Amino acid sequence: MIELQHISKVFHRGQVNEVTALQQVDLQIAAGDFVVLVGANGSGKTTLLNLIAGAILPTEGKIFFNGEDVTTIPEHRRSRWVARVFQNPLGGTAPDLSILDNFRLAALRTQPKRPVIGINETFRREVRERIAQLGMGLENKLNQPMGALSGGQRQALTLLMSVMDHTDILLLDEPTAALDPRSAAVVMGTAQQIIQDLGLTAILITHNLRDSLQYGNRLLHMADGQIMRDVNAIAKQKLTLGEMYAWFGA
Amino acid sequence: MTFYLTALLLGLCLGAMGLGIFITMKIFRIPDITTDGSYTLGATVTAVLILAGWPLPLVAGVVVIAGALAGVLTGLVHTRLRIDALLAGILVMTALYSVNLSLMGRSNIPLLGIPTVFKALTVFSNPIWNQVLVGGFFLAILGAILAYLLRTDFGIAMRATGNSESMTRALGINNDRMKIIGLAMANALTALSGFLVTQYQGFADINMGIGIVLVGLGSVLIGDALISWFSVRSIVLQLSLVVLGSVLFQLVLAVALSLGVNPNFLKLITSVFVLAIVGIPRLTRSRES
Fold this sequence. Notes:
The structure holds two protein chains of two kinds.
Chain A: E1 2-11, E2 19-29, E3 34-39, H1 45-53, E4 60-65, E5 68-69, H2 75-78, E6 82-85, H3 99-107, H4 121-132, H5 151-162, E7 169-173, H6 181-198, E8 201-205, H7 209-214, E9 218-223, E10 226-231, H8 233-238, H9 241-247
Parallel strand pairs in A: 3-8, 3-9, 6-7, 7-8
Antiparallel strand pairs in A: 1-2, 1-4, 4-5, 9-10
Helix pairs in contact in A: 5-6
Chain B: H1 2-27, H2 35-51, H3 56-80, H4 85-104, E1 108-110, H5 127-151, H6 153-161, H7 165-170, H8 175-201, E2 203-205, H9 212-229, H10 235-258, H11 266-288
Antiparallel strand pairs in B: 1-2
Helix pairs in contact in B: 1-5, 1-8, 1-9, 1-10, 2-3, 2-4, 2-8, 3-4, 3-8, 5-6, 5-10, 9-10, 9-11
C-alpha cells in the first residue's frame, strides 16, 4: 500500500541549523496493516508522517501509494488517499464552524466542494447516528460550534470525520497526547474499531508505550532519522514494556 | 428626517462593501486594503460606462468583473509570491489609482440628469424613500446570494479555510485558491458599493476611495459586536447585522456633521470612531483579565 524508497529529509540545508530528520529510510507497509511508530523526540516520526501526508516534500527518495508515484503530489490532492488526525485537537477541526459543517466538509474530502447546499435531513441523520456511537451525548449538539467542545470530544469527532469519506490510509499523530486518560481510551478504542471495520492502512505515532503494545500489528522504533527496529505481529505480542523501555535507554 | 434617510441610504450603498470586508476580515482574517482602489474602480467603471450609454445591468456586470479582477490580483500577489496580505493590498490599491485616473481621463466625472438605478422605482411620493427602497432591494439581493453561497458546500469550505488551514488542507481544499476567490468576491462587492454611491451622489471622483476601507471595517466591527452580543449563528442574520452596522456608521457620521463638525474633519472622526469601536472593548477586557 505505502512504499518509501531511500527517503531522506534535510531541514535548513546548508545553514548552521541544518538537521537531517530522515536518513535513507526504506519502508513498505502492506494494505490493512496498523503500524505503530515509537521513538524519542526528534527521531523523525512526525517527519515521516508529514512526508506520507504530503505536508512536506522529501529531499531525496520516492513515495508510492499502491505502486503510484505520489512523491510530488501536494497535500490537498493527496487527501484522496490519506485522512489525518492531528496531535493538536484544534488542528483537525474548524472551531467556529458547527459540528455539522465540519462533518459536511469531511464527507467531501475526496470530492469537489460545489456551490450547492449539501446538508439535508438525510445527511444530518447519518451524522447523528455516527456520533451517537461515541456515547458522548454529542449527537444532540450538531449545531454547536466545534470550538465549544473539549479536546477529547473534538479529537473523537475528528476521528469519525476522517472516515466520513472513502480513505485508504489513516495517519494518527499522537492523537491522545493532549487528552485525559478516559477521553484517550475512547479515542483509541474508536480508532481501533474504525481501522478494523474499514480495513484501513493506518500509522499511529505514540509516546504511550502501553498503547503501542496494545494496538496495531506492527511496531517500528525510530531513532536518529532511521528505523532501528521493525517488530512484526507475532514478535510484538511477546514484547514487554520492560524490553521497550530498554530501547530508549531507560 | 431627510437627513437621517440620506444617512440610511448611504449606509445601504456602502453595505455591499461591508459584506465584502466581512468576507476578508471575518472569514479569511486577511486585512485587505485593496478596497480603497476597488471601490473607486467600481465608481470609475460606472461613470464611464453610464456616460457611454450602456444599460445599467450591463454596467453592474462589468463593475463586478472589474472588482473581482482587482481582488484576484491581490490574491495572486499574496498567495503566489507569499507577500504579506497588507502589502499586497497596498500594491494593488496604489496601482489602481493610476488605472482609475486613466480610465476616467480626469479626476472627476459628473453624472447629472442621467437616469440612475435609484430612479428605477417610484412607489412613494418622496423620492428619497424610493431611493432607500432601491438601495434596500439591491442589498437584500446581494445579501441573499452571499448567504446562500456561504451555506453551500463551497461556502462551508470557504469559511473553514479562514478558520483552520491545517484542517482544510487535509480535507482536499486548496487554501490559496480559496483565498483568491474570497478576495475576488470581496472586491466585487466593494466595487458594487462604488457603483451605487456614484449614482447616488451623481459623480465619480478619483479620491472618493481614500480611507473608505475604514468605513467598511467600522461597519463589520459594529456588526460583529452585535453578532457576539446576541450570539447570532444564522448567516443571514450575521450579514444583515453587518449591513445594519454600515447604516449605524453613517448615522454616527451624520449626527457628527449635524452637530456642526467641520466636514474637513470627517476622516478624522471616522478614524477615531473606528478606533473607539476596536479599542474600548480591549481596554475593558484587559482590565478584567
